[in-house]
Design goal:
Strand content: 25-35%
Distance between the termini: 32 Å
CATH topology of the domain at 4-98 and 150-196: Rossmann fold
Order of helices and strands: EEEEHEHEEHHHEEH
Number of strands: 9
CATH architecture of the domain at 4-98 and 150-196: 3-Layer(aba) Sandwich
Length: 208
């Protein structure tokens, strides 16, 4: 049986970057890594805004983890349309990004520079989540700056406007993140549940 392909957008370095959800780590999936930084050893060098090296309708899935916030709001429609373009007719997108509602709740408590959580890169503050990881930006990685943000409602609307036909999402407030599955074609809830639970959940806790 031919392997299914997942385009991993902006994964970072293989040793220290973002990991695919466990469902994509099954032997039935082949990861294709697209990254703007050649030092991250991607299969395809490119950005979300320039994915010309990826053919139309060539991917079974796209995985985008914490990179859609790195483009300006006016650029988001083009990026999401590019994700849609490279998907096969039955393909789907799994996307995660910061949950601004959860972050702004901390800001409202005057905790802008207090650690919200700890990551392998060190403590992450609401300021980091809103504008980009301070140490990475200080090291010259200016493409890591955050230029826009989303609530579950606004991300859902952006995906609908881009042409995705079916979607389901969840706020993971303790992780300060949004997770969504968005399908290129119309799918019923049973099919969305199957995608979310394939192997291990593509979107943690989506239906729990």
């Amino acid at each position: 049986m031919p392997l299914k392909t997942v385009l991993h957008v902006g994964p970072g370095h293989p040793k220290s970057g973002a990991k695919l959800p466990l469902g994509f780590q099954a032997e039935t999936w082949q990861e294709i890594r697209l990254d703007i930084d050649p030092a991250n050893q991607p299969d395809i060098i490119g950005s979300m805004q320039d994915m010309h090296a990826v053919a139309d309708a060539s991917m079974d899935a796209v995985y985008s983890a914490h990179n859609i916030e790195h483009v300006h709001a006016f650029e988001v429609p083009h990026v999401l349309q590019e994700f849609l373009r490279v998907l096969k007719p039955e393909g789907f997108l799994v996307i995660t990004c910061p949950d601004l509602q959860a972050v702004c709740a901390l800001v409202a408590q005057d905790k802008l520079t207090d650690p919200a959580y700890h990551s392998p890169a060190g403590p992450i503050t609401p300021l980091d989540i809103l504008y980009g990881h301070g140490p990475a930006l200080a090291a010259g990685h200016h493409y890591m700056a955050h230029k826009c943000g989303f609530t579950l409602k606004s991300l859902t609307q952006a995906l609908q406007d881009a042409g995705f036909q079916t979607m389901a999402g969840k706020r993971r407030q303790q992780a300060f993140s949004l997770w969504m599955i968005a399908c290129k074609s119309v799918m019923d809830e049973a099919d969305i549940r199957r995608l979310a639970g394939e192997g291990e959940r593509m979107v943690p806790g989506l239906f729990s």
